[in-house]
Amino acid sequence: PEAFFFLYIAVPCFLSYTFGFFMYSNFWCDVHSAERLQAEYLIDWYFNREHTMRYNSTVGHWTGLSRAGFITASHFNEDDHDGFLPEPLQLVNLLIPVEPAVDLAEAAGSGPDTRLLCAAYDFYPKRIRVTWHRDGQEVTSGVTLSEAMPNGDWTYQVRSYLDFGPGRQHGVSCTVEHISLREPKVYHWEPSVNRSERGFLVGGVCALLLGAVVLSSGLIKYRRWFCPRA
């Protein structure tokens, strides 16, 4: 999904209080999408309220906008030791944490055991903690946790599985901790009818429907035989 982030910093600097010289700079960072190459870093340089020069990361150098600005920009552009590292963009990204979306569901499995899946996805930054609890106590046995995998848009996803035997579904919850959350979020598992019980239930419903059909047919025949029309 397309995103936009704007960072603005103003840095004033008094060159001489006696003569009233005043210089300040504006630092801008425009992030129009999740692609780092589309992030633009700008510096506007002012002297005594005059816009003298600007740096644009897309252009890659300083541009003079006034007589004094042309001279200063030329000196800055000739300095081989002047440069801007891409690391500040990573710092900007850390300022925008994305809350994870979480799904808690029963995963497909074999045998009588139950497997639950707690999936957290579309979160940023990468670091996240997913734990299982039963009746308020953390569960470590039967837990399988995958590594946080990148989605390709700076967000991540992670999956955690919990395997347990029959009759232990109650009181199970999944807890997710992330920097985007003010406090850990707890997702409670509501156990549904298991496969064996579901089979008995379906069979019972079918038997009731068949019995109702047979009973209805018998009543109709009885009325025809023993209740002749007047």
Automatic annotation (TrEMBL):
**What are the protein's UniProt keywords?**
Glycoprotein, Membrane, Transmembrane, Transmembrane helix
Matches recorded under InterPro entries: Ig-like_dom (IPR007110), Ig-like_dom_sf (IPR036179), Ig-like_fold (IPR013783), Ig_C1-set (IPR003597), MHC/Immunoglobulin (IPR050160), MHC_I/II-like_Ag-recog (IPR011162), MHC_II_a/b_N (IPR014745)
Q: What SUPFAM superfamilies does the record point to?
A: Immunoglobulin, MHC antigen-recognition domain
Question: Can you quote a single GO CC term?
Answer: MHC class II protein complex
User: Which residues constitute the signal peptide according to the record?
Assistant: none
Alphabetical list of PANTHER family matching this protein: HLA CLASS II HISTOCOMPATIBILITY ANTIGEN, DRB1 BETA CHAIN, MHC CLASS II-RELATED
Q: What is this protein called?
A: Ig-like domain-containing protein
